[in-house]
Amino acid sequence: MNPQTLKKSEAASSNHHADIQQLIRQYGCGPVPITGVEHAFYDRHIVFDNVMSPNAVGARERFEAAARSIRDILSQRWIATEETYQREDAKRVYYLSMEFLIGRSLINNITNLLLAQLIPKFAERKDLDWHELLEEEPDAGLGNGGLGRLAACFLDSMATMQIPAMGYGLRYEYGIFKQIIQDGWQKEQPDNWLRRGDPWEVARPHEKVEVSLNCSFEVCGGSLRAVPGKESRLIGVPYDRPIVGFGGKTINTLRLWEAAAHDYFNFEEFSGGDFVGAVAETLEAESLTRVLYPDDSTSKGQGLRFVQEYFLVACSLADLIRRFRQSNDDWNLLPEKAAIQLNDTHPTMSVLELMRILLDDAELSWEKAWDLTQRTLGYTNHTLLPEALEKWPVEWFRALLPRHLEIIYEINGRLLIDVRTRYPGDEEKVQRISLIEEGETQHVRMANLAIVGSHCTNGVAAIHSRLLRTHTVKDLAEMFPERFSNKTNGVTQRRWLQMCNPTLSKLITDAIGDSWVTDLSELEKLRPLAEDRGMQDEFRHAKRCAKVAFADWLHRTTGEVVDPDSIFDCQIKRIHEYKRQLLNALRVLILYRRLRENPTLEMAPRTFFFSGKAAPAYRLAKVIIKFINNLAGTIDGDPLMRGRMKVLFLPDYCVSQAERLIPASDVSNQISTAGFEASGTSNMKFMMNGALTLGTRDGATIEMAEAAGEENFFLFGLTAEQVADSRSYYNPYWHYEHEKETRDALDMIFTNQLSCYEPGAFSPIRDALLSRGDYYMHLADLGSYLEADLLVRELYADPHAWARKALLNVASSGKFSSDRTIAEYAADIWKVEPCPVTFD
Fold first, then answer.
1. Average pLDDT, stretch 18-31?
2. Quick check: is 187 catalytic?
């Protein structure tokens, strides 16, 4: 190593903490400049973390050094945030979620620390390929879709708004899976995102939590299963990640729990030669948090998920109660100092665990414990699908958590007395409200438990909240009307506009200033500018820059070539029948057939993008992916389609991919069957990036169209009421028999023209659409979808008219910031105030 480099690194190490202290004192409430100190941080990590010459390290080591250097800058502010909350005894929000789809952290933290403009200079001085370095960070495998991404946006907003908050989740060693496409089929591979560690997280073994279970674990047939009847103790080891608020003023914490075996190790067994027996318990216990979603097609997988949910709840509640008791010895103050939000039904066992703590540990009366539990907990519902409302077998509670089952029975007994008193003689209502679903196997209805055990239940879009009250849990809503409210979802504009779309962000800031970054309602100032021809041209330029950037990235990473002058038409989300990727593919197939039959047909060049993962056990969803890929191959192999139409299924959809494709998109497909999508958040991201929505009146798309004007959307299809009303008589065969384009397209699929090498591969599509009645009404909406698509093509032929509508969409997206959503939660549900961080 160069002696001069070594000398500089040693000096940086000796003055390391003092330098950080000085930096944060000076710049703690604003941007921290890239100075010689930061260079020293980086040099120190390169040399001392790796014990290597700077000339010998690779891209991964350079990424880790950069990340740790940024963490050095924020560490003192992170400590100060926690100290301020303790000193002020502030009321805190504890956000419990099984998913946090946070994506990459380096560029996000740099953005929120206001360092983004200075990083290129740093990279130039260090001779770094900044883009290569960013690609070294994997997306954190902590989530799957909208539920987890919403949780991540909420954490960003709470930190930016200086709300005392903490996220609680599980530290999955493996994400859901890495998706590869092989012969058109989805194949799953392990997503070992922690293989090389994570420079952002900090282990806190001194704050570990012990969890007792009436079961142990064993590996059987290659999978982990719970074995009831044998008590075991797990250790929850917390790992903390910083959540940087914009400007770096507040840095909250996401605490993730990793399962470990109890500290006791059976050395006698080990030394006696029983190596497997001695270490098996440790390995099996640690497997609890190995994967994000166990395979729920088996009882073993479902059982593991059940224990995962309790593990999250038990660790998190023990930790937050410890924090509460540090400053408060009066249990009556719990709702005044803690607001626990349950992100969907997964953390619902919080109702039971908090009651257990208050009854057994605090020795409070039932009435007092129940009052405190309800006032402390809030529940967010994310689905109207009955199959997505969790129900766990009573026997599992009896075998694994017997004390919690006693509490369930007591809650339910008191609840049903109340129901019979209020609705005498209505035993059907009693059965619908009961926490226990009767049948061949008794189940605990977790959504009912969450509603009964909390003071507030909210939906996540106006239509969703209405349908939740009037259909999904109608009886409970009638019994507790004051508990139900709506909190329409939002996304953080810091990541989904400012960070991922720099050209459009600069255009907006140049036009109206930069206050939109923390107050998205400021985008309304763009509305009159949408009529300006010059602004329209600048918007078109910004959109093309994003499209060229995406096309370059796609070619560099996959070899695929797309035309940035074509319409980028996108549907990127989890693959599910109700989200109707199949409907989109049918539209593409019909458009393809039209071009084949009439090559002179005027139609702007178009690139159709699909992306999303299917649950490994969801057979039909995987068949839909196969169909899309075969359709793409057919079109790509047709010389007549060159330069006119292309279809791409992008594998392994993730946050980082979305950050590239959403800014580049012209058309956003939000085409769920009306009444099935709770809210949607990708629709909001597309809108604020200037894509026009082609969609149904479902979820938050309804509110988005109201904000921008329906004339600036391409809406089609049945409404939720029409879907419900037509259930009794809907016959998909009618569309097959009376709509020639529909029949010809389906016949092309069913006669194996798109699967000549795998005859019958698409039989499940025929079964779903015709034999089983087309439950999600693809064929009912297909004609309307094609009519709306024609309007898309006609408008795109007028570039300025298109840009005007796109700008009006951007200007109208202010309501859909997660800052607005969090402000509503804070005021209406949590009753929590900002707590500005002070730094001594």
1. 42
2. no
